[in-house]
Design a protein that fits this description.
174 residues, alpha+beta, 9-stranded antiparallel beta sheet, two-stranded antiparallel ribbon, 11 strands
Amino acid sequence: MRAYWFDNAEGDQRLPHDSGRAVSADYLSQLGVLYYNIPFESDVDKLASERSYKNRDMITVSPEKMGAIYEEKVKSFFHEHLHEDEEIRYIRDGTGFFDVRSEGDEWVRIFMEKDDLIILPAGIYHRFTTDDKNYIVAMRLFKEEPKWTPLNRGPDVDVNPFRKEYLQTRQVKA
């Protein structure tokens, strides 16, 4: 994992967009984003038990696996959104980027690779994209039945109870 401020330059979302300004794991933690490097799945089982994750599945995001819908899917993952549940991703192969909003509403880009596990809190605005290799395999963990319901950013979502709770627990302003 490597985190840094997104440069906001025009261009393909799958490029690094590295501003050269690093972001520490401690800062991510202040945003509620938790990071682990876990080489053994047995350690993921332990974390899943501790955090009450009951279900999991695997997703492969690549043109070969997704076919004609790949570009459309990657673009949909890149729309700024939040979830009403934690988002947990454990990278098993390939590489990609999660972008999360800072307390100042700027993007922090998080480069993820094999054995990286990230937990995004409910209510945080974020987005995801593959990198220019167009390939990532991730385990998704869930507290309940597997679901992925993005709520795209907008006035209605800004007042969502999970968004409000996130902001209150982080003591940040939208």
